[in-house]
Amino acid sequence: MFELKKIKLFFAVLLIGVWIVLYVSNVIATNKLFREKYVLESQLEKLREENLILSKKINELEDAERIIPFAKKNLNMKEPENLPVIIK
C-alpha cells in the first residue's frame, strides 16, 4: 500500500516536471519568435523607407525639366519645329 503511494507520487512529480519543462521551452520558443518578428518588421520598415526614397529619386531623374536641358547641351538635341499629329 505504502509502495503504491510512492509510485503514484513519483509519477505525479514526474508528470509535473515534464509539464514544466515543456511549458518553459514553449515560452522560450515563443519569445524567440517574437524577437525574430520584431527584427523582421524593423527591416521591412527600413526597406519601405529606402523604397520611398528611391521612388522619389527616380521621379526626379525622369523629370523632363532635368532631361531636356541636359539633352540639348550634351547630346545636341533639337526640339521639333512642328508638333506630332495624332491620327484617330
Short description:
By secondary structure, the protein is an all-alpha fold. It is built from two helices and no strands.
Summarize the structure in words.
This protein is mainly alpha-helical and 88 residues long. Helix content is 82%, strand content 0%. It has two helices and no strands. It has helices spanning 2-62, 64-74. It is rod-shaped, with a radius of gyration of 35 Å. The chain starts with a helix and ends in a 14-residue tail after the last helix.
List the helices and strands and how they pair.
Blueprint lengths: L1 H61 L1 H11 L14
Shape: rod-shaped
> What is the structural class?
mainly alpha
Strand content: under 5%
Q: Percentage of helical residues?
A: over 70%
The ordered H/E elements are HH
Averaged pLDDT: 93
Largest sheet: none
> Could you list the spans in which at least 5 consecutive residues all have pLDDT below 50?
none
Cα Rg: 35 Å
Separation, N- and C-terminal Cα atoms: 104 Å
Number of helices: 2
**DSSP summary, beta strand count:** 0
